[in-house]
Amino acid sequence: MLTLADTGFDAPAALLARYGLQLLRVADGEAIPGSYWGECEAGIIGTDVYARDDTPIHSLLHEAGHLIVLPPERRAQVHTDATDSIEEEDAVCVLQALLGDELPGVGRERVLADMDAWGYTFRLGSARAYFERDSDSAWRWLAARGLVDLQHRCLVEMRPLARSA
Known about the structure:
- By secondary structure, this protein is mainly alpha-helical.
- 44% of the residues lie in helices and 7% in strands.
- The protein has helices spanning 4-7, 10-17, 57-69, 72-75, 86-101, 107-118, 127-133, 136-144, and strands at residues 22-25, 43-45, 48-51.
- Helix 3 (57-69) packs across helix 5, helix 5 packs across helix 6 (107-118) and helix 5 crosses helix 8.
């Protein structure tokens, strides 16, 4: 499974910054704030995404995806669990693969493979099958929020976001 140690910190931090998010490094062995799953899984609080070197990249992208899909006024309220619907969860699974394409040496294929290795479950049997053949509603959900275009490409535009002091 590809981790933050494998990719380095700078590229994921720059990617998240494009969406008005901040990637914060957690020291090895420390608990990750805002982690829903615990252990090495990424955490989210407000506009901050927390990760250690052993955090899987797919986890970091998934949790960041939850913040990316939210309007700015809702991001500030997030602590640990951002999902409010199955539709959002499905869309975030697509978005995390697209975000993988934005990271050097990662790509959607690796993200999808790591999702399967981690234990995501999809009715067609794999994350790739979901992404390619069973995610039409997720693509529509993302497009309605201006996050993807009709060619199924990620639109990387930072939403204006006021950070609290």
